């Protein structure tokens, strides 16, 4: 099988994007893991599939696979690349694109040649639905690590589960040590993405994210959204926040509970490729 694809990235969070409308594609976890290998495969954080929607009100179905082969519910940086991809390939001629995801629906707006705004939907704050093992809704939760250290975090779902820790500095934050342990901690039945947020001001934060199934990445769009939501709920942030990630900046806006989170950021196409499978 000859598979055509485009390599793209959003702030260094990189993707193999595949048009599964114009070509026949058969994807499984083993193939995703093989292709994600940066030494013998294409190499990527996530694979994105463009498929026909099952919902007639949507333009496309948007599917996301992590490098470990697991399919996930949402990816903000991927959504921006998805929008640019379908527009560049002529699969849609509009700048506003409605997509069906594993979590529901998302609306993508192309606002510049390399700039896309995504309506990420309203965050889920019920700890049972995130999901966590906690049953009472709270601004923060705490759990103990194997080392005996107690960690406090906010729990938010942006279609995928996030824990957000506030740290003094992202440079000294124990991302490599706490990230993998918290990702698969018993309090997160479906595992979780772990964000380490340093608050600079009410409108500016630094953020590193250890992503579920991918490890630390250059940027995480849903992680940036979750961080702002958690920061707002703790009274640390205003409604419009610039999030500085290792790969670059995202603009996040959230008016509060019951409202959607809006994310705006850049996308880049790296190259077109094809591979025999």
Describe the structure.
With 277 residues, this protein is α+β, with helices and mostly antiparallel strands. The chain has two domains: 2-120 and 266-276, Diaminopimelate Epimerase, Chain A, domain 1 (Roll); 141-259, Diaminopimelate Epimerase, Chain A, domain 1. Helix content is 16%, strand content 42%. The protein has an 18-stranded mixed β-sheet that branches. The termini are close together.
CATH topology of the largest domain: Diaminopimelate Epimerase, Chain A, domain 1
Number of domains: 2
Shape: globular
- By CATH, the superfamily of the largest domain comes out as Diaminopimelate Epimerase, Chain A, domain 1
Quick check: average pLDDT? 96
The low-pLDDT segments are none
Q: What is the annotated CATH architecture of the largest domain?
A: Roll
Strand portion:
35-45%
Ends distance: 5 Å
Write down the secondary-structure element order: EEHEEEHEEEEEEHEEEHEEEE
The number of distinct β-strands equals 18
Number of helices: 4
**Share of helical residues:** 10-25%
Strand count, sense and closure of the main sheet? 18 strands, mixed
- Cα Rg: 18 Å
Q: What is the top-level CATH class of the largest domain? A: Alpha Beta
What structural class results from the helix and strand content? alpha+beta
């Amino acid at each position: 099988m000859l598979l055509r694809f485009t390599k793209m990235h959003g702030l260094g969070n990189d993707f193999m994007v595949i048009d599964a409308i114009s070509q026949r594609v058969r994807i499984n976890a083993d193939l995703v893991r093989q292709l994600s290998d940066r030494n013998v495969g294409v190499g990527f954080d996530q694979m994105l599939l463009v498929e026909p929607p099952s919902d007639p009100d949507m333009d496309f179905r948007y599917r996301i696979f992590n490098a470990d082969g697991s399919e996930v519910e949402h990816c903000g940086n991927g959504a921006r690349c998805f929008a640019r991809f379908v527009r560049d390939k002529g699969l849609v001629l509009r700048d506003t694109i409605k997509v069906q995801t594993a979590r529901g629906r998302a609306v993508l707006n192309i606002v510049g040649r390399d700039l896309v705004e995504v309506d990420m939907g309203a965050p889920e704050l019920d700890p049972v639905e995130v999901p966590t093992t906690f049953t009472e809704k709270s601004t923060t939760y705490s759990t103990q690590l194997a080392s005996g250290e107690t960690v406090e975090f906010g729990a938010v779902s942006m279609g995928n589960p996030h824990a957000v820790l506030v740290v003094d500095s992202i440079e000294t934050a124990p991302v490599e040590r706490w990230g993998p342990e918290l990702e698969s901690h018993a309090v997160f039945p479906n595992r979780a993405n772990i964000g380490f947020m340093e608050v600079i001001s009410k409108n500016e934060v630094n953020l590193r994210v250890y992503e579920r199934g991918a490890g630390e990445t250059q940027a995480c769009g849903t992680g940036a959204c979750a961080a702002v939501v958690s920061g707002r709920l703790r009274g640390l942030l205003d409604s419009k926040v610039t999030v500085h990630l290792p790969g670059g900046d995202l603009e996040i806006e959230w008016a509060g509970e019951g409202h959607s989170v809006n994310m705006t950021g850049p996308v880049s196409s790296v190259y077109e490729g094809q591979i025999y499978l």
